[in-house]
Write a structure and sequence with these properties.
The complex is a heterodimer of chains A (about 250) and B (about 500).
Chain A: H1 3-8, H2 10-37, H3 53-78, H4 81-86, H5 91-122, H6 124-129, H7 132-157, H8 168-176, H9 183-186, H10 190-205, E1 229-230
Helix pairs in contact in A: 2-10, 3-5, 5-7, 7-10
Chain B: E1 3-12, H1 21-30, E2 43-47, H2 59-62, E3 66-68, E4 74-76, H3 81-86, H4 97-100, E5 104-106, H5 108-113, E6 125-127, H6 149-152, H7 161-174, E7 177-181, H8 190-194, E8 200-203, E9 209-211, H9 221-225, E10 231-234, E11 239-242, H10 247-251, H11 257-260, E12 267-275, H12 279-283, H13 291-298, E13 299-300, H14 305-313, H15 318-325, H16 328-335, E14 340-341, E15 352-355, H17 359-367, H18 375-384, H19 386-396, H20 401-422, H21 429-434, H22 439-451, H23 454-457, H24 463-477, H25 486-495
Parallel strand pairs in B: 1-15
Antiparallel strand pairs in B: 1-12, 2-7, 3-4, 5-6, 8-9, 10-11, 12-13, 14-15
Helix pairs in contact in B: 7-19, 17-18, 18-20, 19-20, 20-22
Classes of the chains: A mainly alpha (about 250), B alpha+beta (about 500).
Cofactor (chain B): [3Fe-4S] cluster; [4Fe-4S] cluster
GO molecular function (chain B): 4 iron, 4 sulfur cluster binding; electron transfer activity; metal ion binding; nitrate reductase activity
GO biological process, one term (chain B): nitrate metabolic process
Chain lengths: ~250, ~500
């Protein structure tokens, strides 16, 4: 056992090393399992047919807010402070920008999620279509998002400012660098710690919820031919082509 | 030229009595499940009327089908690729459940379980979406037989401008007909083009358009793109579902359930051969009124030796070519040219066609004190009665009344000739000649329209025969194949019997 981990204590080791790795393992294995076993269930599970007035605003607000929030997390967690400073962005400038943009994105995401949760709770048609995975996902996602935005509000907007890039980000990168640094996060404010833990849980739940539709973002549609033809016989992959070629060519065994 | 075969349908609307047997048997077969209670893969509408879902034909509102952009290119009316991806989170042009109707069930237990007593138990309707008692205020055939027409039918999108004014006050005495609708299995399907996941596809062998349930991710763009609103969201599975043209039956050489159970025997099923390379060009025809001819041009004459040779080269088996020559659908669409597509102006090149009804005109003749059996009265009515004609033209010919009038004249001449023949008279050959029919053709057409038996109406070759024939064709080609590498010929012999290899894959894989 490495001396630093030992110094952190058993609880710290469990929370900040074992738990994240377990969650990531569930995330990875869960996705493989779900993709292989449940293509039929792999969907965004749209309820726009049943209710569209709240969705009209709630869904774009939530999704676009989420994209911005995710981008912010990638920059804040994955990019070391030394890199941004090397690029000429000072600590103060970085945090001012991050708090400003992050607040806008966070508020959009929270408002959107609030509307989506509200329509799910208040519209009976949708409440009845809500399945157990949604009952897990919606609270978990809401808690994570609320913890995250309150950590920012408490520490960085109204508080004196907390440099999570020196602590939480170090722990986060350690997980993926396979050299865990649990001691980096043990001193962080409670809100940040709770946010990190609920995020781990969210990743563990991900493959078993409708969140899998994230991986089906249809980017390929931008380049695909409009018409899709397929042969009735089982083909290994769908044959997509705009216009079939005029002359038949002999084809060898595939 | 790349020839493909297509199983297509024609419906003779004069024979439709609006009994909804097709809708009910279809529902029992395909959509009697949770999540698609509101969906009718086949429905029967009363026209004039707003239809199901309400006003689905108003593409300014629903943005279905294709249109031409300023440079004459074919584009989806609902917008380009980027716009589609941006509307993934909330599709602004998706009909809500209220545009269809709130599906209900009844408290049957209340009937069965009520104790003996003086009161008669009732079964109250309950919404299947909320489980609560609900008032039934709309349905898939709410306006059946023009019910509520004074209130609603003015909303029929086919009644545009002046026509609406004229019809609003008198049409309930004027005409009515039923329009059975199912997925059109279009040659240029907008639903497939709009599917972000690439889950929807058209089958090369028989043209049937299907949704791959394993690949659908519930982006619901197909519902918007289909101008006929014949793709539905299953709200329980979150995936798209649509009419399958009963493909398991078609593959077995049987007619679709709606055709099989049609009481009026008004449906015809058969093969059409078409040139897949010319589809895009035909759909991009500039003038909407030329689309009908453009689509007819894409369909190929199955008796033409050149077409037969090209079809063989494309791997279409012999029994299918034989079936294509006997196709009642081809006869009605191309030989006698009395079948018309529904809303050709949507530019999807639909493959369920209709023989337009003469009954609105006959009704009008009767209402005006004329004699329905006197061809002169009917001819005069076809020429002068603009209301039903314009209405039919808006449905079937992108507004070209002359085309609809031509078909109705043909039907009138046929009717009058065969009436005389049946009464033992000479027949009205002059009338026939005026509409371009010979006495022999008239007999044939009359047979097809009036007496065609089961095997004449449904000419559907089974798919397993096709496999065998394709394999034989490939075997026959092997020894004379010189362009391929030697290994290819050897390899193919081994592959016989593997269904994936029974024909050439056109083009590359994307």
């Amino acid at each position: 056992m490495n001396p630093i981990a030992a110094a952190t204590g058993g609880a710290g080791l469990l929370l900040w090393v074992a738990f994240p790795y377990i969650c990531l393992a569930v995330f990875a294995v869960g996705h493989v399992w779900r993709y292989r076993q449940d293509q039929f269930g792999w969907t965004s599970r749209t309820t726009q047919l049943l209710e569209h007035r709240w969705l009209r605003w709630g869904s774009p607000l939530f999704h676009l807010g989420a994209f911005a929030v995710i981008a912010g997390h990638v920059i804040g967690l994955a990019v070391p402070a030394s890199w941004t400073e090397a690029a000429g962005i000072g600590e103060h400038a970085y945090h001012t920008t991050a708090v400003a943009l992050g607040s806008v994105a966070g508020v959009a995401m929270v408002t959107g999620l609030g509307m989506l949760c509200a329509r799910r709770l208040l519209t009976r048609r949708i409440r009845l279509t809500t399945d157990p995975s949604d009952k897990l996902l919606f609270p978990l996602l809401s808690i994570t998002v609320l913890l995250g935005i309150s950590a920012t509000a408490v520490e960085n907007v109204f508080g004196g400012g907390y440099d999570y890039r020196a602590t939480v980000s170090v722990w986060f990168r350690g997980i993926f660098a396979l050299s865990p640094r649990p001691e980096a996060i043990t001193g962080a404010p409670l809100l940040f710690q709770l946010h990190a833990l609920s995020a781990c849980l969210l990743f563990a739940a991900w493959p078993f919820t409708r969140l899998v539709h994230v991986w089906s973002a249809p980017i390929g549609y931008l380049a695909r031919p409009y018409l899709v033809y397929r042969r009735r016989a089982a083909t290994p992959a769908p044959v997509t082509h705009e216009v079939p070629t005029p002359e038949p060519r002999p084809r060898r065994a595939a | 030229m790349r020839i493909m075969a297509h199983v297509a349908m024609v419906m003779n609307l004069d024979k439709c009595i609006g009994c909804h047997t097709c809708s009910v048997t279809c529902k029992q077969t395909w959509t009697n499940r949770t999540g698609v209670e509101y969906a009718w893969f086949n429905n029967v509408e009363t026209k004039p009327g707003v239809g199901y879902p309400r006003r689905y034909e108003d593409q300014r509102q629903w943005k279905g089908g294709w249109t031409l952009d300023k440079r004459g290119r074919l584009v989806l009316r609902s917008g380009g690729r980027v716009k589609r991806l941006l509307s993934l989170f909330s599709n602004p042009d998706l009909p809500g459940i209220e545009d269809y109707y709130e599906p209900v069930t009844y408290d049957y237990d209340n009937l069965v379980g009520a104790p003996a007593g003086d009161d008669i138990p009732v079964a109250r309707p309950r919404s299947v979406l909320t489980g609560r008692p609900t008032a039934i205020t709309w349905g898939a055939n709410w306006e059946d037989g023009l019910g509520g027409a004074p209130e609603h039918a003015g909303g029929d999108p086919n009644l545009g401008g002046e026509l609406a004014e004229k019809v609003r006050f008198e049409f309930e005495q004027t005409f009515l007909f039923h329009l059975p609708r199912l997925c059109e299995h279009c040659l240029n399907p907008a639903c497939i083009a709009a599917c972000p996941s690439g889950a929807m596809y058209k089958r090369v062998e028989d043209g049937i358009v299907l949704v791959d349930q394993d690949r659908c991710r519930g982006w619901r763009m197909c519902v918007t793109a289909c101008p006929y609103k014949k793709v539905y969201v299953n709200h329980a599975t979150g995936k798209a579902e649509k009419c399958t043209f009963c493909f398991p039956r078609i593959e077995a050489g049987q007619p679709t359930v709606c055709s099989e159970t049609c009481v009026g025997r008004l449906r015809y099923l058969g093969l059409l051969l078409y040139d897949a390379d010319r589809v895009g060009q035909a759909a991009a025809t500039e003038d909407e009124k030329d689309l009908l001819d453009a689509q007819r041009d894409v369909l190929l004459d199955p008796s033409d030796p050149g077409v037969i040779a090209a079809a063989r080269a494309s791997g279409i088996p012999e029994d299918w070519l034989e079936a294509a020559r006997r196709s009642p659908v081809y006869a009605l669409i191309a030989t006698y040219r009395i079948a018309l597509p529904l809303h050709p102006e949507y530019r999807t090149l639909p493959m369920v066609w209709y023989v337009p009804p003469l009954s609105p005109v006959l009704d009008a003749v009767g209402a005006a004190g004329g004699d329905q059996d006197d061809p002169d009265h009917v001819f005069a009515a076809v020429a002068r009665l603009r209301i039903p004609l314009e209405y039919l033209a808006n449905l079937f010919t992108a507004g070209d009344t002359d085309l609809v009038a031509g078909v109705l004249m043909k039907l009138t001449a046929l009717r009058s000739h065969m009436r005389e023949r049946t009464l033992g008279e000479a027949g009205d050959e002059a009338g026939l000649e005026a509409v371009g029919l010979t006495a022999g053709e008239a007999e044939d057409l009359h047979r097809l329209l009036a007496v065609a038996k089961y095997e004449d109406r449904y000419v559907v070759p089974a798919a397993h025969k096709e496999d065998a024939a394709a394999l034989t064709a490939m075997e026959n080609r092997c020894p004379v194949e010189t362009s391929g590498e030697p290994a290819a010929a050897g390899g193919r012999r081994v592959m016989l019997g593997l269904p994936t290899l029974r024909r050439h894959t056109p083009g590359g894989r994307a």
